[in-house]
Design brief:
2 domains; 9 helices; UDP-n-acetylglucosamine1-carboxyvinyl-transferase, Chain; 16 strands; four-stranded mixed sheet; Dihydrodipicolinate Reductase, domain 2; 346 residues; alpha/beta
Length: 346
């Protein structure tokens, strides 16, 4: 009998995690009421691309792989390396398709090369810079080895970006994100479509973020501003905080009518807030110990916890975290959130 997952809560994350764990464990899965709690339930283009990518890597038999489907049955074969290409068809996030395939590195003997056409810098998903500079370094600390190359940026609504994830055969190492270690400095990166070059949008994003960080006594070691070709107008900024034992990232995307300075300041404010939390006291009776990973990285690390055990101290326990833990438990993994808000895998 397949593992049965209630897909109504947690959005597309539940489907992605179910596909990943099915491929890794070899167990068939049936996800019912896919995205049922969303205003537009069922499979959308990005979710369908996730199913297609996972199925191609492990030669799965799939029922329900069509737009609007609210039930997906996925029976995996043996995951193999090789090249796979998927076109989301919209500005749907390429990085979320990557996230479905990344865990499969722990069960393949040969590298996986996944090229996705879609959105590289779009709302409600990790930007490709965050994925490359925050997500993958965190994954590497858990034994997962992968790189990302960007051929073309894709902003909303045109999409049309192209990026390639290369996943090497990987290990299952205990996940240990319970302490930040010493602060090593901040990095600021900004990109803007070439039609915004005359307005110096990328430079203004960086300048605003750097100014706010330095005002808050957060040392900035490096900053870069780039103009990129893209089918649609767009821009974004990423602030990365590097610590001895972790990395945290805070991104913000440009919006029509919003000054670049406001966007840069928003990313910096999130980074400053995270940085300030390290002053919390771990003493008994005092505030809880400071978070070690940012709010978005937390749910991305749940599957690593399931596959190799460990602890993650997140900035917040979100709906996605709890939904991911529930999916992991459905496959027989002991992953939970303890009373201190730490995600634990045993």
């Amino acid at each position: 009998m397949p593992v049965t997952i209630d897909g109504s809560a947690g959005g597309g994350q539940v489907l992605r995690s179910a596909l990943s764990l099915a491929a890794v464990t070899g167990e068939a899965v049936r996800v019912e009421d896919v995205r049922g709690a969303r205003p537009n339930p069922g499979l959308k283009h990005q979710h369908l691309a996730c199913v297609e990518a996972a199925a191609a890597v492990c030669d799965a038999d799939v029922d329900g792989a069509e737009l609007g489907s609210d039930v997906v049955a996925f029976d995996p074969g043996d995951p193999t390396g090789g090249s796979v290409a998927v076109d989301v068809g919209t500005a749907g996030a390429a990085t979320l398709v990557f996230e479905t395939v990344l865990p499969l590195g722990v069960v393949v003997d040969d590298p996986i090369e996944l090229t996705v056409t879609g959105g590289t810098d779009v709302a409600w998903s990790p930007t490709v810079d965050y994925y490359r500079d925050v997500r993958l370094p965190l994954a590497a600390r858990a034994g997962w080895r992968a790189t990302v190359d960007v051929s073309r940026r894709g902003f909303y609504p045109g999409g049309g970006g192209e990026a390639t994830l290369r996943v090497a055969p990987s290990e299952r190492e205990r996940v240990a994100f319970d302490d930040r270690g010493a602060f090593r400095g901040a990095r600021v990166e900004a990109v803007a479509s070439s039609d915004l070059a005359d307005a110096d949008v990328a430079d203004r994003l960086v300048a605003a973020a750097v100014d706010d960080l330095e005002t808050a006594n957060v040392e900035v070691d490096m900053s870069t501003a780039r103009s990129v070709r893209a089918p649609s107008t767009g821009a974004g900024v990423l602030v990365v905080l590097d610590y001895e034992a972790t990395t945290a990232g805070f991104s913000a995307l440009g919006e029509p009518g919003t000054p670049a300075e406001d966007v840069g300041e928003r990313a910096a404010a999130d980074a400053v807030a995270f940085r300030g939390q390290e002053r919390s006291s771990p003493d008994a009776g005092g505030p809880r110990r400071p978070p070690v990973v940012d709010v978005h990285a937390a749910d991305q690390l749940v599957l690593a916890l399931a596959l190799a055990s460990g602890r993650v101290r997140p900035a917040a326990v979100t709906e996605h975290v709890r939904a991911n833990c529930a999916v992991a438990r459905a496959f027989g993994f002991d992953v939970r959130v303890d009373d201190d808000g730490v995600i634990v895998g045993e």
